[in-house]
Amino acid sequence: MRPFPPPNARRAGFSILSMLAAAMLLALPTAAPAQPQIAPPAAPPSAAEDNWLYAGSDIPRDLAWQFGELPNGLRYAVRNNGVPPGQVSIRVRMDVGSMFETEKERGFAHLLEHLTFRGSEHIPDGEAKRIWQRFGVTFGSDSNAQTTPTQTVYQLDLPSVTPANLDESMKLLAGMMREPRISDAAVDAERGVVLAELRESNGPQKRIADATTEHLFAGQLLGDRSPIGTIASLNAARASAVQAFHNRWYRPDRAVVVIVGDGDPAEFVRLIRTYFGDWKATGANPAEPDFGKPDPKAPVTRVIVEPNQPLSLTLATIRPWIKRLDTVENTRRLYLEFLAIALVNRRLEYRARAGGSYLVATVQQDYLSRSVDMTTTQIVPLSDWKTALADVRGVIADAIQTPPSQADIDREANEIQTFLQKELENARNEPGARLADDLVRAVDIHETVTSPQGQVDMFKAIRASATPEVMLKISRAIFSGPVTRLVLTTPKPIPGGDGALLAALARPATIQDDRLAAVDADFSQLPKFGAPGTIVSQTALPGLRAERIEFANGVTALVSNNTVEPGKVRVNVRFGTGNRSVGADESNLLWTGDYALVASGIGPWGQSGIDQITNGRQIELNFAIDDDAFELAAESRPADLADQLKLIAGKLAFPRWDAAPVERLRVGLLTGYDLNDATPNAVLERNLEGWLTGGDTRWAPPDRSAIEALTPAAFKAFWAPRLASGPIEVEIFGDLSTVDYRTILTNTFGALAPRKPISPPDGQRVGFAKHRATPEVAFHSGEKGQAAAMMAWPTSGGRAASRDQRALDVLAAIFNDRLFDRLRAADGASYGPMVESHWPTGFEGSGGYLLAGSLLAPKDVDRFYAIARDIAADLVAHPVTADELARNAGPIREQVARASTGNVYWMFLLEGATQDPRVTAAALSIQSDISAVTAADIQRLAAQYLKPERQWSLAVLPKGMTLAEASALGKASASAVGGR
Asked: Which family is this protein grouped under (predicted)?
C-alpha cells in the first residue's frame, strides 16, 4: 500500500519522495521499469459533458470519471470500480476547515465533524453507527471523517452493497450534512470526546509541532488554526454558535460528493440528485478567508527547548502559494522540482551512511494548505548542531552552484518512471476507496486527476527535458525565496539562544562537492549458489490455486500463478525459527534486525552497490520477524523475479557485515531513547508486549546499556547463524505466466547448500503477566493530565483451535463496541478506547490474550476499570443479542471477504503451509468459522477466559502520582458532577 497516492504529477512526486526516504534507510529503492507509449492529448469535452475539475486544464482526462453539477451548486464525480467486489466508496467533501474559523470558533469545524457523524435530526443519536454496522461497516476505518485546515471530508466504504443499503446510506449522509443533531446535549458529549482527543495528543511532539508551525507560518492562519482548536474555545462552544457555523459553511455550493464502486454510475448520480438535489443554502456564499502570506519581517530563528527530546533542525525556504491552473506545463515544473529534491536527498543520505555529522537529513517540498510553497530540510544531528547544519547547507549550496550529471538525473528519473509504470500495470486493481480519496485531494489542492497511462506518457516527455542546465535552474528556484526560517529543538538551552542560530545561518555555506561516485555493480558479481537444485515433489494444495514444490536440499515453495494483480509478483521468504530461536529469558539482538540486517549488505555490495543494481527495477528487500520464522519479503514484477530471488537468496548465502549500519542503528536508538516515556502512549508502545508476556526478552525492549553495548561483532555473532540455519519456505504469488518460476527457484533457493537444522530452546511457551489484586503502575514524564489504563486476560494460541480464534475476534469486537459506547459516546472520557484479541500461531497453547485499553485522564482510570470489569462480567453472565452479534461479526466477515480478493491476504494466511497442513485448513475455514459464531460461543469463551482471578491490569500515570491520588481525583470529579 502506497503512503501517498499520486492521482496527479505533484502527488506522484511526493509519493516517491516518501518511498525514497524509506528506501534509502533500507538501502533499497523500490520501482519498476517503464516502456510508455505517447498517447494523443485528450479530446476536448463535448458540450453535454460537465468537466468542472478540468476547467482551463490541458491535462489528459481520466475518462472513467463522470462529473456533474446540480442546480443548487453541489458538484459530484462518480465512476464504476470493482475493487474490491461489491464495495461502494462515498466521500462528501465540505469546503470548510479550521482556517475558515474566527478566533472564537477555533475547533468548530472539527467539533462539527464529530457532531455530524453522530447522526441527524431524523434518527436517534448514535443510531447511524449501528445502522452501518448492520451493513457490515467497521467504525473508524470504513466510516470516518477528517478535518484539515482547508476541508472536512466524510468517508463511507460500504461493503456487500445492495440497492437498499446504498439508498439508506445516501439518505443518512445527506441528512447529516444538511441537518446534523446540534443540541446542547450532543455538543456537551462531543466536547468531552474532542477534549479527550486534544489531551491524548498533547505532549512534547505536539508542543514542538505547534511551536514550529507557529514560527514557520508567522502572520498566516496556517500558523494559528490547528484543527483541534483550544481548550478555551471548545469549553465555550454552545449549540447555537456551532449551528451558526454550520449554517454559514455547510451549503450545497461548497459540497462535492464522490462515489466510486461496484455499481452503475447513472444510479450513483440518481441517488445524489434524490438526496442532495433539494438542499438549499441559507444566504449568500461567504467570502473566502484570507489565509495570509509569509511574513518576511517575522523572526528568522527560534530555539524550542523540550527536555528529553533529541536535537533536531528544521530549515525552511518559504514562498507564497500561487494558484495555478493544473496544466501539462505545470506538471512538468512539479516533476522537475521533485527530481531536484531527489538528487539532494540521495547525496544527503550517502553522507549519513558514510558517517557524517548527522543521523538523518532529508529535504521535501510542499504546497501546504493553499498557503505556502515551502522547501523544508529536516536534520537530526549526531551531536554538534552547528556542524550538521553547515554540512547540509554545503550540499544544498553545491546543488545550486553546479549542475548535476546526466547520469545522476537519469538515476532519479528511472525511479519515478518505473514507479509510474508499476502504477499503470496495477491500475486494474486500484481500490475504489483510494480513487475516491485521490479525487477529493485533487479538489482540495485545486488540481486534476489523470489516468496512470496519462501519468506515464507525461513523465516520459518531461524527463527528456531534464538536462543538467534545466535541473540547475530548478534547484536554484526551490532553494530560494523571500522568507527563511530556522528552528532548533534541543533538550536544554543553547548559549546565545535564537541569536546563535541566526549567526550560524548567516555564515556562508561551504560547498560540499563530494558528488556521488559511480558504482560498478551488477548481478554477475554475486557468487554462484551451487549446482541447480532438484525438485523432488510438486503437489497442488486442495482448495487453493497454488502448488507446493519441494527441493532436494529441503527448501519448500508455495507458488500461486494468478492475474489478481497483473504485472506484479509478491515474494516472501521465511527462514529459521524467528522468535523461537531464543529462549524467554535469553538476551538477544532481535531488535537490531529491522534496519541493520538489510542495510549491512550482500556479498560484494554495500548499500551503494545495492542501490545501483536495483535502480530502475522493481526489486526490494524487507525484513520482519515472526514467532516461528524470519522473513525477507518483496514486491516485484515478472521481468525482475529472477534477480529478486537472487538478491534474497544472496542475503542468506552471502551476507555482508558492514559496520556502519550497525553503528547508525545504535546511535539512532540512543538518540530517541528518552522519547520512550514522554507520553503514556510512548510508554505503552515500548513496553506493553514485554509486560504482557511477563518480561519475556523476545518482546521486552532493550535498555540503554544494551543499546550502548551493541557492536558490529556482536551483531554478526547473533545473526550469522540465524541466516545460515533452519528451514526455508518461499512464497511466490502473482503474475507468473511469462516466467519459468521453477527454473528460477531451481537456480536460486534450490541451489543453496542444505541448511543446518535448528533445535529451539526448550520450553517454547509464552508466559503471561501475573495477576495482581490492584493494577500495576508505570509512569510517564509528560503532561499531568494524561494517563492510560489497560486490562488483559490470557487466552491461548496455536493452530489447534482456529474456530475459537475467530470467535474471540468477534468477542473482542463486541467488547470494543460496548466500551466505545460507554467510555466515549456517553461519558466522553476517551477519544479512542480499544479492545483486541491476540492469538499467535507460533506457540501452541500459549501467547494469546484479550486486551482492553484506553488513553484518558488520571481521574478516569478507575472509571475505565469499573466499566471494563462490568462488560466482562456481563459477557460471562448473559448471552449477547442476535442484533449485537450480527453488528459486530458482520464487519469482520466483510473485512475478510474484501481482503480475500488479494494475494497479500492469502500469502499471510498460508505462511508455513508447506510444512504444516493445518495452516491451509485454517485459511480456508475463516469465513465459515466467523459465520458460525453463536451467542453461546461468545458466552462460553467469555466464561473460559475473562476470569477475574487471571486478569492483569496496568495504569500509566504522570510521574509522582499514585494510584490512590488518581482515584481521589475521580471521586472528586464524580462528586462535582453529581452536585451540579
From this structure: Belongs to the peptidase M16 family.
